[in-house]
Specification:
Blueprint (H helix, E strand, L loop, with lengths): L1 E5 L4 H12 L3 E6 L11 E5 L16 E4 L12 H24 L6 E7 L10 E2 L10 H14 L7 E7 L1 E3 L5 H9 L12 E2 L1 E3 H13 L5 E5 L5 E2 H12 L9 H8 L4 H4 L3 E2 L2 H6 L8 H9 L1
Helix pairs in contact: 1-5, 2-3, 4-6, 6-10
Length: 300
């Protein structure tokens, strides 16, 4: 297949590019700085998001577009300026993808657009599936709602559209190494009260679900990209401690985190139980449905 990827140089994009190239697909990575990346036999870097760049002129007929572009949520404290950048980076990239679809001579078959479980808001008691259609009322819910609404416009061009609502992605990069640092220093423990849910997923299953969404014509609309067994924060911590053979004892108090991180502390202190009902009904088989084997694969 011929697949274009935005955000192809990030955490998920790098893993996706490596996997798809190894399977023999031809990949086109849309980037602001194509000259910084050497092309390979299977991977071509194409300029976009800068004035004068017309990626449609440098692309063949595409089978799929995967849109992963967006500013990192935890790169800095959530000032009003940072929040605006988080929102605008996703909207701008998705609008540019829509322009690309509109301007290409042949319409791509499918758009797989990143989203997040933040759509649902937070709760310690509710279970969220794709049947939950009412978004939460916090900042991340607003971001994901607008993000998905933009992506949905691809359907107007006859493009099958999927929004993968990513949970916390566990891999050698991303959040997990930071979570493990206190345990390696013998100072790990629950964050806040430890009761907040974490809907996690192994990086291999994120890549698997992206491929599954590309290939399965029945995949459409929102799909929860989370493992089927979410864990509370305290359970996650105990599992990390067990895998690393380190103690789980020293809590990180909520007031200190709120003081240090401000609104961004919600990423650590609040969560949601998200179940991948649609993926399972469509027949996706998780490589890592349970947390402890996933942690062992990454941390050991």
């Amino acid at each position: 297949m011929r697949i274009a990827i935005t955000g192809g140089t990030g955490f998920v994009g790098t893993h996706l590019t490596r996997q798809l190239a190894s399977e023999g697909h031809d990949l086109y990575i849309l980037t602001r700085s194509p000259d910084k990346h050497p092309n390979t036999e299977r991977v071509t870097y194409v300029g976009w998001l800068k004035e004068g760049m017309k990626p449609e002129k440098n692309l063949p007929e595409l089978d799929a577009i995967v849109n992963l572009a967006g500013e990192n949520l935890n790169s800095s404290r959530w000032t009003e300026e940072t929040k605006k950048s988080i929102m605008n980076s996703r909207i701008e990239a998705t609008e540019s993808v829509l322009d690309l679809i509109k301007n290409m001579e042949q319409t791509t078959k499918v758009l797989v657009n990143a989203s997040a479980v933040g759509f649902y808001g937070t709760s310690e008691t509710e279970t969220f599936t794709e049947n939950t259609t009412t978004p939460g009322n916090d900042f991340l819910a607003k971001v994901t709602t607008e993000w998905e609404e933009r992506a949905q416009k691809a359907e107007l061009f006859g493009v099958r559209t999927v929004y993968l609502r990513f949970g916390v992605i566990l891999g050698e990069e991303g959040a997990l190494p930071k979570m493990a640092i206190p345990y390696k220093m013998y100072a790990g423990g629950p964050v806040g009260n430890g009761e907040q849910w974490m809907s996690w997923i192994h990086i291999r299953d994120i890549i698997g679900l992206i491929e599954f969404s590309i290939k399965n014509d029945k995949a459409t609309g929102p799909i929860n990209a989370t493992a089927p067994n979410p864990k509370r924060n305290k359970e996650l911590g105990k599992s990390i401690a067990k895998v690393l053979n380190k103690p789980h004892w020293l809590p990180a108090p909520s007031p200190a985190l709120k003081l240090a991180l401000g609104e961004m502390s919600t990423l650590l202190l609040q969560g949601q139980y998200v179940y991948p009902q649609k993926a399972l009904e469509l027949g996706y088989q998780f490589e890592y449905p349970e947390l402890e084997p996933a942690l062992k694969d990454i941390l050991l």
